């Protein structure tokens, strides 16, 4: 397969950045999108050029490190799929593929396609946890019966991998879906109720302090999310926030 790639290159956070054109041949349809970039980088290194910087880790759709806006879509054209799980069979010989980093004020570009997502870590640290013993003095999990429906819904919310596609896709660069997943996961379990009011207040305050935009219920985040986190979690986040105003 021959491809024409238009890739965002940016030396550092201060550089203005620009698109650079690359033509590559010999791309296999079974390659993952990241393997295609590895293949390009091997050629750039062999020519003495700077390889394209991009984020990745597990390459199994579970760590949330991969990102990339591909032809204007976060994580590319395949629904419920991370960039690392996208394969070149989704593209055709001769295609032009435009590859950009996430674009959001709270996710500044570090280099090329790599952005700084540490704002998510700070939101998580503000309240995305429970204060319970996790070693030594733990309680047998089955001592607290939890209805299957609640356990399943909490698990669905917990599958967020923190990739940031929701922010990159949102016209307001809102982090509501990410925060909603965290809050909804714990709000649905008895262990999470203890600090629920404090948690939602602190996480929303941290989200605002990081400069993410407000939610205007457009729903683009849900469409782009590779893990299917639902807008219903944003509704729950809003309910939890309103309740917490009366409790704190
Ligand atoms: S809600 Fe979805 S898109 Fe947003 S960070 Fe979590 S997994 Fe990624
Ligand atoms: S590299 Fe881990 S989810 Fe894509």
Give the helix/strand layout.
Elements: E1 3-9, E2 18-24, H1 33-46, E3 69-70, E4 73-74, E5 96-100, E6 109-111, E7 114-115, H2 118-127, H3 148-158, H4 165-169, H5 176-187, H6 190-193, H7 196-209, H8 220-224, H9 231-247
Parallel strand pairs: 1-5
Antiparallel strand pairs: 1-2, 3-4, 3-5, 6-7
Helix pairs in contact: 2-7, 3-5, 5-7, 5-9, 7-9
Bound molecules: iron/sulfur cluster (SF4) and FE2/S2 (inorganic) cluster (FES).
The site of FE2/S2 (inorganic) cluster (FES) has 13 residues, from loops.
**Please, what is the average pLDDT?**
96
- CATH fold description of the largest domain: Fumarate Reductase Iron-sulfur Protein, Chain B, domain 2
Total number of domains: 2
Count of DSSP E strands?
Answer: 7
Classified in CATH, the superfamily of the largest domain is Alpha-helical ferredoxin
Radius of gyration: 20 Å
Taken in chain order, the helices and strands follow as EEHEEEEEHHHHHHHH
- Spatially, the strands of the biggest sheet line up as 2-1-5-3-4
Runs with pLDDT <50, length 5+? none
Rough shape?
elongated
Helix percentage: 25-40%
Fill in the keyword field for this structure.
248 residues, alpha+beta, Ubiquitin-like (UB roll), Fumarate Reductase Iron-sulfur Protein, Chain B, domain 2, 2 domains, five-stranded mixed beta sheet, two-stranded antiparallel sheet, 7 strands, 11% strand, elongated, binds iron/sulfur cluster, binds FE2/S2 (inorganic) cluster
